[in-house]
Amino acid sequence: MAFSRIKSRFLLISLEKAPKSRVKAKIEWKIEYLVSLDERVERGAADILSLIAQYFDAIEGSRNSINLGIGEPDHDLFDMLKEEAVRRIMSGYNKYTQTAGIPDLREEVAKYYQRRWKCEITSKNVIITPGASNALFMSIASVLRSGGEVVIPTPTFPSFSALTLILGGRVYEVPTRMEEGFKPRAETLASKISEKTCAVIINSPSNPTGSIYDEDLIGALVDECKRRGVYIISDEVYERFDYTGRYTSLAKFWDSYDRIIIVNSFSKTLAMTGWRLGYMIIPEHLYSRVMRLQTFINACPPSVAQYVALFALRSPEVERLIDAKVAEYRDRRDGMWRELSEAGVQVLLPEGGIFLFPKIPLEMDSEAFCNKLAKSKGVITIPGRAFGAGGERHFRITISAPINTLTEAARLIASFIEECRASK
């Protein structure tokens, strides 16, 4: 509040000294900018957020509901990471850190990519952020020109489109088909790239479809972006949830193209979503631009969370625990897919991630289907429309629940579908 008063007083003094014509122009510009920003936020986020929120509101107070809408692991932070957090807190690691993140953590992230993908990523390319969402925002903000466009295969994570619109860009969706594994054709995506295109955003393993882009597809997309000189941004927060062994990071092509940006997170792998810790890997020519954004938006990433992530990256035991959890999710995926398939629901077996994306077997749009399912059976899912044009006629289910809960949810979904068919 005090800062706002100082800022307002400074503005009044500066306006008093300025010519009246300049004062009027400045006030009009500020009003126009604020209205424009409000409109962009409304256009970019309101519809998606209200669509998702209403399904949680629909079951508020119901103890018997099964919530398969939230996209986060259901297990708790590993005990050894809790212990490390307490140790760091009690040792006084509670202050600001370096703006780009603590050097040791940036170095460990770089080493991880060097080992796994045989690339030349260094700590100078790594910026630790308060969550992957923040990294995604800064990624788009750092490459989006005025009037710029972003090409996005859908269905995909809603924030890609929302943040682009909020930042004043235009979105061109490339709808994918279930029959083709919800994967874009490189030539189709390339046809949407114009001289105004600033970036292509991809997500593998995909939220919501579970599709994985293999090395051939990633390589083809990189080639198309390279041919046209546009950035390619890859959201890889579910990278460890790979059930096929075919997952390929964009880092595989790091050394062949200088307009690659990778967004990742510790939230899903370590089950620390509430700690808000992610990172971005960027070419060195973007470093100063992103650091300005980080400085004024975040100051620095959360201190204790960084030391917990550092401990995790250096711990073979944490690595074993992660592998065990991924195996558990694979079993859940198999069980839920089998239950839905046997009930006559068409759904692809996800290659990765923590979601299934079934096709709605009724003459009903995704919003109506999910709303009626929630009210009738207490099973909370997310309408496919929230994930872009390619998501309509589908709904998203998370497998972040015990297998017996998922089995019961599948039974209730099948019962709901049969009741809808019988009522016609």
Keywords summarizing the entry:
single chain, 424 residues, seven-stranded mixed sheet, 12 strands, disordered N terminus
Mind explaining what this structure looks like?
It is a single chain. The chain is α/β, with parallel strands linked by helices. Helix content is 49%, strand content 12%. The protein is built from 14 helices and 12 strands. The chain has a 7-stranded mixed sheet, with helices on both faces. A 3-stranded antiparallel sheet has the order 9-12-11. Strand 5 (197-203), helix 8 (215-228) and strand 6 (231-235) form a beta-alpha-beta unit. The longest helix is centred in the first third of the chain and has 39 residues, at 20-58. The termini are far apart. 42% of the residues are buried. Residues 1-18 and 26-31 have low confidence and may be disordered.
Instruction: Report the structural category.
Output: alpha/beta
What is the alpha-carbon Rg in Å? Answer: 23 Å
Beta-strand residue percentage: 5-15%
Compressed to H and E, one letter per element, the order equals HHEHHEHEHEHEHEEHEHHHEHEEEH
Shape: globular
Total DSSP E strands: 12
Number of helices: 14
Q: Which residue ranges are poorly predicted, with pLDDT under 50 across at least 5 consecutive positions?
A: 1-18, 26-31
Query: Helix content range of the residues, please?
Result: 40-55%
Mean pLDDT across residues: 89
How is the main sheet built? 7 strands, mixed
Trace the largest sheet across and list its strands: 2-8-7-6-5-3-4
Distance between the termini: 59 Å
